[in-house]
Amino acid sequence: MSVILNEVRRATYLDSIVLMRISRQIAALPGIEEAGLIIGTPANKEILRDAGILGPEGATAEPGDLILALRASDARAGQAALAAATQLLDQPSALGTTAAVESSRTIRAAVQRLPAANLALISVPGDFAVAEARKAMEFGLHVMIFSDNVPIEDEAALKREARERRLFVMGPDCGTAIVAGGPLGFANVVPRGDIGIIGASGTGIQEVSCLIARAGRGISHAIGTGGRDLKAEVGAVTTLMAIDALEADDRTKHVVLISKPPAASVARSVLDRVAKSSKPFTICFLGATDFALPANARSAATLKAAADSVLGASAASPVKPPVRRLDGGRLVRGLFAGGTLCSEAQIVFRQAGLPVMSNVPVPGASAMAGVHDGHVMIDLGDDEFTRGRPHPMFEPGVRDAPLAEALADPSVGLVLLDVVLGYGGHLDPAGHLAAFLAGRERRAVIVASVTGTDADPQPRDAQVRTLVEAGVVVADSNAGAAEAAIAALGVS
Amino acid sequence: MKTIDQANQEALRRILAGDPVLVDVVPATEAIPDLADRMILHAGPPIGWDRMCGPMRGAVMGIAVFEGWAENLDAAAKAAAASFAFHPNHHFGAVGPMTGLTTQSQPLMVVENKAFGNRAYCAINEGLGKVMRFGGNDAEVLNRLRWIREVLGPALGRAIRESGGIALKPLIARGLTMGDEMHQRNVACSSLLLRQLAPFLARTSKDAGELVACLDFIGRNDQFFLNIAMAMGKALADPARGIKASSVVTAMSRNGTDFGIRVSGTGDRWFTAPVEMPVGIYFPGFSEKDANPDMGDSAIVETVGLGAFAMAAAPAVVGYIGAGRASEAAVFTRSMAEIVVGSNPAWTIPAMDFAGVPTGIDIRLVVETGLAPTINTGIAHREPGVGQVGAGIVKAPLKCFQDALVAFAQTMGVE
Amino acid sequence: MDEKDDGASHDLLGAPPRVINIGLEIFAVNLASQGAEVAHVRWSPPAGGNSHLAGLLEKLQGR
What we know:
Strand order of the largest sheet of chain A: 17-16-18-15-19-20-21
Oligomer: heterotrimer
Largest interface: A-C, 81 and 51 residues
CATH architecture of the largest domain in chain B: Alpha-Beta Complex
Helix content of chain A: 25-40%
Number of helices of chain A: 17
Shape of chain A: globular
Strand content of chain A: 15-25%
Radius of gyration of chain A: 23 Å
């Protein structure tokens, strides 16, 4: 008979990565069926309730409190796990980081310590991100908001205020930026160069900047705008400021603009601004090429095409990895950590005339139904998978269960994966995948791309080697992996 | 600049502009003419006999015998319940450590803030161990109080007047460089003061035996300066009271039952919450079971940037309060720097690259961060008459600041 | 849509960013490991998550 145990620590806040890490450690203890350490916001309590581990004590928690909730096979196992959790919580230094950086409790005190500060990187829960951004702007700081779940009208208002103050708001939901060689959030170690990137998507910036770096070129700046900057409500405030800033930046000789297809009115204002620029642009409105472009702009449907466009034709003839023709299952299952990489794979399939389904369908793809009876591309970073759980870029274990499911499905002949490296990400995603695959029965071919560079904290060459040794076919780009999959289907 | 920030800058300016000078020691009735018979001023926010903690009651009983209002302690307890008038020191320009009782026949030290002309008062420190401020009330305690009243007080008064007054701001600046934080540790300032006063004590003394007794009493008491620092804190903080739109704290104080604060923009209203238990180390033979909740007006020194706010100046205190390594002293000061308006350039801490002590607690910052002001404190035995059993630190209850914020917001038309 | 052009923004691109990091500590650690100037804010919900008090603070901030 399993038991549910809850403990509430009043007035305790820890960042979600730390809590999720401890949650996973606790869940792995003997006799523990489910465990969650989470801050007591209403939304989080709902997650615990859905998971069936919210007890009466946890229900009393306030947003400033920490809930330890678990279901155990018996009370003794549960108590032992709670004790273990307490121990982990009480040794923040054991989590590795506290001593490395001096900290304060307020932006004001941090600015006093670092008076030269010019940018605030905000990764607090979405409900609080705008208020913190406003405080940061009071100190004259540009803002990068990593947090998501910010209402779009708040985003629009914040960006207008920032523009009045001549400050950038990168985000919300801005995963990646590289400013004057400084990687922010999830970013790769790429050389400095003359190519500027403006990107609505973090993994999009990562893929393009890594393809450029691996071709021997470099990045001047990569400015993240957040995924909704080109929506009509926001009106491209950040994108337009970024175009102006890169226009004024002597180092930048070519600009790549990456976004989902924008609203027509917004596209017009962005392209009008591009037309005024003295620099060549590559416009990658993922999947959409039917825009009237100014003379100084070319269009690219995929991230790979965008990189090729800026690099010139020489880099555009990739070596396709040899993938055997599928003999058993005929379906492709893509399991992606990067949302834009998931979109790109769909676009490649649509360009080849293949039907494809997704939980985040691009135009021309269909929404995923309950039964997976076609080619399916799943974005594991989407809300439905990350609610109360870590993002797969932090924690590759999130992909284990869907991967096991795909490998056990006789209709699946090929699994497409992305492995995203760089600062902020997991330290050995390839190693995790190899360990997962070791000794596991599998019929399906596994094709992966590795977004990263050899200079990353997880060097790409070593990650690729690990994957190859584990029997994974590694493509040179995400689009290349999708093309390899299509080749294996015998379609093109 | 925004209204509140501007008002807070003014509050800070007034605290920093203060020029506190120890000018005299006078009988309490001379300093506070309203101090009537059977009237007792106590530490902390208002409280009646019925809610007083053990040490406070013990001190009340003792002082009643001392003042001749009761034959003995039992009679004093009955009289206290029936007919004594109790008021906070703070309502009469005074402060007192721990129980902090002020009554008509005690001598009070007078600190005048020359920049603003206001005065503040505090009784003379009785020394360590079994003393009235920790609820002690036996014959030894009362005899010492009599000697202070009849010998030490007048002698100190004569010497201070003869000296022309002791400027306290530079004295404290030196004390900070010598390891004092002016709450838990007053070794340096007590010594500096005695060094400065000794010639004047000698010059004005009528009796060599009395002079020896006075010098010996002050010289043996490492905390002698505490009461002067407190009167000084009160003298500095008072000009910052009543500034419209200022969210700066002008007093923090405890009576052993409640913790109370006052905020500039909300005038003389007290915001109170149940006082917390200090955490610290105990004298041999005592433990937290014996401890009384936190007590005293002494948190006025934290209100003006000393005590726990200046902990980085006094690494020796960190061991005293059981907080661990001496290098952690700076953590307290840095943390308090997050809840204040500014820092005091006249009072700097060598170990922090001569950063000024954090000054001017802003209730908005306290509520926002949840960082409650930390206070260095002595720990009294919970039973009357026993005295001090340890020393440690205590947090001001957040509820005081939260309630104050709500009331302050109302004054700003914000609900 | 607002087409107003406010001219150049405060210089963001001229030098490597000096960062105030608010929230996930890993980002501050990463920046520090690259030698970037960074100060970390150990963020927690304002007023301990008490929405009434947090609301008052926000309104008072503008005064």
